[in-house]
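ingest -> fold -> write
write: protein_1
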Amino acid sequence: MASAPSLVAAALGLGVDERAVELLADLRERRAGRVTYLPGLRTAYLGVEALVPNSLLRVTVGTGGTRVEQRRFWPFRPRVARTDVDEVYAEFRDRFVAHATLLAGLGRPAVSLTGGLDSAATAVAAAPSVRAAGGFAFTYLNPRDAARGEAAVADVVGARDVARLLGVPHRVLRWRQPPAGGTFDVLHRRTYAPETPSRGAAHAMWADLPGDVVQLQSNGGETGTTFLRHRPDHVLTPRRLTELYLGSGAPVDDGLARELYGGYLDRVPMDPATLLGFDDYDVLYWEQRMGRWGWQKFVDGDFGHRILLPFNDRVLLETMLSLPYPMRRDRVLPARLVAEAGLQVPGSAAPVAPAAPTPHPGRVRSGMRRLRGALRRRAGVPVGRADGPAGGEQDRAGGHRAGRDGTVRDGVMRAFAVVPTGAAEDFPGALRTRPLPVEGLSLRAHPALPHAVVGDAGAWVLVLGEPLDVPDGLDGARPVARLLHRLLIRGPGLVAATVRAAGLCGSWVVVMAGPEGGRVLTDPLPSWDLRLGPDGRTLMGDPGPAADLGGGEGHPLGGDHLLRAGPPDPVPRWQVDELPDLAGAVAPGADAVRRLAAHVLLLTARGRPVLGLGAGGSLLEVLPLLTGPAAGPGTGGGRVGAVTWWDPSSADSTRAMIRGGRRAFDAGVDQRLVLPGRGGPVDPGAALDAALGPDDVVWLGLAPGRRESARSVLGAVRPVRPVALPWSDRVLALLQGGGGPDRCTEPHTS
């Protein structure tokens, strides 16, 4: 006797049953895409039989020799039919919760969670113990399955929703094959020889889960509800058992039936007198589906850690099986347990109001300790003046959320043009016209685009976007425009204003003109498709339909250049020039750590930070600044979230989602997933808006110097909410002490 057929065969030197191997191959072909196993008592070795659940192997050793017999030993007593669902539920709940709690107390618990009801019930029962012991939930995912259909995606999304509502951290494991000849490959092949079953999930658990976890696996729950739904009157025979196994309508001959189930009903009888009122369909699922296939799921986990089964309790199953079939078919017991916890019952259309994420301060603190770099060594953080000129006033020009009727979801919110007045009305696009201080020049911009104009014809400044001035602690177009205007009209005038503008953070465009001439600068990413029209006077921002004006698409202006114009002409004619030396923007004694900390603190005032995490996870480097003693109000560890754009049709996107999720999990940050078109809006910005709260601010890991443009990313995000760009800072690279991403490998949230 052994825990796997291969061990018995190895101990006794028994050979492979080649016919059984042929049968298994034939069954896999017949049941393509479905669970396949050798049914009955047959194994892949000659002379080795399976001992199915509810069977007793009695070995008698005496002077007359050794006698071995196998018989059914359950049911112990007749089934008791009950219709008081409240009474049965109370017994089920008490025993199931007690069992799950005891199992979760044997180590650090990890709940194997899918989008199904049974695992959700286990998660509900074990959640208090999981939270108390620093446990988590996990779901494994095959990127190929995610691309092929909805079921795998629904598992991940459903599991994540359940975990979040229960306040349990959740991570996704990537289903993948093991390296040939590696340790796991050898272990797995030896265990399941001669025929190796699917191993991607087993390898994911072995490779990615800690060895000290106690996995709570929910297989077997359908024994107490239903699995086989079609239940006509019947007399079980080898032929009927084969029909049930292969599925309705499958051709069955008596020879195949004898090979699969011959002798089974003699060893493990299932007649009414033996089953004592229990339904043979339920018993068949228990003893065949679980006994001949389900054991592999438990062994798969056992390669690397303990695996325990909350439904593995005969008294619990008898309690569930006492209800009438319609109630079990409707899964009233586990569904009620899940509903009482405030969760939506899988398969039900009843909505459940989402709960706020439960903070995990212990995990956030431990995640912070694991982070490396100079950010952890910072001391006090000066943030500039909050009460300086403009007093931190912000001009949102209609607000970030303006135009949610669909008019700003096509990327045009960032569209603007500075054009000669005579051409203003001819400029394409539904943009509003606003005169600028100098006669003969107008601004056309989307009404939701934040912007501000300060000054008069002698000296004026136009600021578009969401700039931040770190030295003075200013956030927004209006206060920044006032600051630049003061510098423009005082000595050293245009030079000082240009240097200060070049050192702004965020996503922005600045146009300014005075007695010394004019300058146009954009942020260092660049996040705008800023172009100079063929007339040399027209400036166009994303999407910049310059081609519609004739003369080609115009000259693009990147983040490493500016436009300059001489003073004589009131309507400037712009020319491309080099950026100024930014040495004047660096305060004496400034260092990158303090500047980044001040920058981050300014950004946190915009709302709850939600880090846009791709595969690289570089934004997690600012986590200590968001959770440490110098963090802004309301940005404690439990309030910092993460979001990842996931396109399941792309295997690369799925792998990036899993890698980003692993980093968020290790850092103690809750990761939300945005799936366009998956049960919600198809528009990228609208899908993101639906996934986040009204006060959430998306942080993007976009950094200067990358080939990828920020325009497409911001076009998907900014139409519906503000953003934060902590690496959008030219000055940071000039300072000592680090403070920037070592490896910026995530140009956007996907």
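write: protein_2
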Amino acid sequence: MSDEQRNTVWRFAIIFIFILIGFFAVLGKIIYVQTVERDEWLKVAEKQVPTVRPIAATRGNILDCNGRLLASSMPQYYMYMDTRVPALHEKNDALFHAHIDSLAKDLATIVGEHTQAEYKTRIVHAYLKGEKRLKVCDHRINYLQRQALLENSLIKKGKYKSGIFFEDQHRRIKPYGILASRTIGGIYGEGGHGNSGLEKRFDEELRGEDGLSNIQKIGGRYESVTVEEAKDGLDVLTTIDANLQDMVENALLAKVTEKNAKWGCCILMETQTGYIRAVANLDRGEDGKYYEAQNHAVQRVEPGSTFKTIALLAALDDGKIDIDDTVSVSRTPWKYFTVKHTDAHPMDTVLTVRSALAVSSNIALAKLITRSYEGSAKKFVRRIEKMGLMDSVYCEIPGADKVRIDVPRDTVTLSKMSYGYSVELSPMQILMFYNALANNGKMMRPMLVTAIQQNGENVKTFRPQVVKSSICGKRTLRDIQSALHDVVWDDHLGTAAKRQWSRKAQSNLVSIAGKTGTAQLYIPGHGYSGKHHRMTFVGYFPEENPRYTCICMIEDPQYPYDAGMDCGSLVRVIAEKTMAYTGCYIWKKGERVLDKR
């Protein structure tokens, strides 16, 4: 081997030794770090891991049919101060001392939770302690307060000099207060899911999708870095008209207050579409005032005499009776097996089927229905099912009760069913049936929502839905409509007709047809009470070309009470104001006539 070759081998050997030494040095360092320094480096690593925080999506709005806000998420802010910010401590705390008085003064003037002196003491105390996250205001401030505070000379300098920063949260508000509150519904907490009403039914659409951000230390400061933008919730466009809703609620409030009733419910529906323009639910609180507490509109109750129209329609359409057939009634109760049937307006006379409905005779209805369906009560219930009344598809309120009309086990139960006992319907379902009578037999599904919107554009549209194209034959429909006319306009028999000084449901401005209902309340442990009642009037207007159908139900009013006097007059007031607001009448040749366009 030559000298040159030997030198080359030595060079490679030396290089290899250095590489080997370096390898073992690195290996030793790795082992040292993973054992001796392991805990220390893990702590460092934890500090470097970005903190993932959600970016809350803004919940969508609930709007009335004209786009006015019924429920919205408004921004509110918590105000904090990091008193350790270096800029505040420079030059013997010059910046802090120069602006503390103006800051305290603005807080006292704009927020007003404390006096200027109290704010100053609070901030100075935190400054001396070096608090990282002083909560400057006890509660959240609104957008306008925040904007005003941003004009303060210290806050204008930014959070890295002033130490002041705001954290926003969205609070659910209802600009119209209790207006349609139970229908709109509520949410859990400030950013939770919908727990009732439309807030619950359309929670997925309203809620949106939260985004993500990382809190990282950048340039010695912690910054929020957006990883994924939040997707704000969609808006829900309802059928409710805020003006009509306000009018209906005020009218109902005046009536339940006058009668000191336990609760009241009133619904206004657009006849041809099934759109609910107003729905009010008022419960008497412990303080005697009324609040939107329960959604009585979709809770079933025994309907009383408003069910007589349903019973008669079944018998008429089955050909069991004719509208001009007669039935005898008496002042004394009519005993049918173990049950005694009585009338609210007792008389010894013979009534036609038409006049029996007008005067709302329990005896007449019990006789007519038992004679028609004695031995075939199942057929009676099946005929009602064919009307579409028992279809489960109606309105968007979660938890709405279904109709309860069971096949009676005996004819005695059938006789009570004929005038609204042993059956249960919600005010919304009763309204749906009478609206079909107004709508030439076409039963429409009550609707509260017409569209889901994003930035004012429809992303999903809900069209009016037909539950039943025809609930009965044309002749039956005409007969029932004529009988409902008499309920209001037959001054001799009609339970909602004019009586002496009271006009009840009769209006000089708009023609109304409908039906009264009075049901005794069942008191657990005592049975039905003759002193406690549920009053109802349901009707449509203008009778010659119906545009709206309205129901008013009042629970346990103070004596004296009369369904036609109280509920009928309330629907009359609502009808007159609705027609004035919607402009359904026009003037032709100096006379006011219904606009049939």
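write: annotation protein_2
DSSP finds 18 helices and 25 strands in the chain.
Residues 307 and 410 are 19 Å apart (CA to CA).
pipeline exit 0
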